[in-house]
Write a structure and sequence with these properties.
The chain has 86 residues and is of the alpha+beta class. It is built from three helices and two strands. A hairpin with a 6-residue loop joins β1 and β2. The protein is extended and about 50 Å long.
Length: 86
């Protein structure tokens, strides 16, 4: 591979890491079949009995906080990694 070639997957990951976007927000933005609200169901292994459920709406304060914290942590992690040289 010549150095001028881009790696689409790595490039997209780095691009998202440098933005203010969480992976879930990125998925919602890039996939038309995913969007708010997000329904969450929890069930035990080997069972389909729903034990807990929740719905995250677009204006959910915790989701915004979690998304922001995730983005900040991911950017910090990428900045701390030494550059890979070819």
């Amino acid at each position: 591979m010549r150095p001028s070639h881009k790696l689409p997957c790595a490039s997209a990951t780095i691009e998202r890491a440098s933005s203010n976007e969480s992976p879930l927000a990125g998925t919602i933005r890039s996939n038309l079949s995913v969007g708010m609200p997000i329904d969450i169901l929890l069930y035990e292994r080997d069972s389909l009995d729903v034990r807990r459920s929740a719905r995250i709406e677009a204006d959910d304060e915790y989701f915004r906080h979690l998304s922001s914290a995730w983005s900040d942590a991911l950017r910090t992690a990428f900045r701390s990694i030494d550059e890979f040289k070819l």
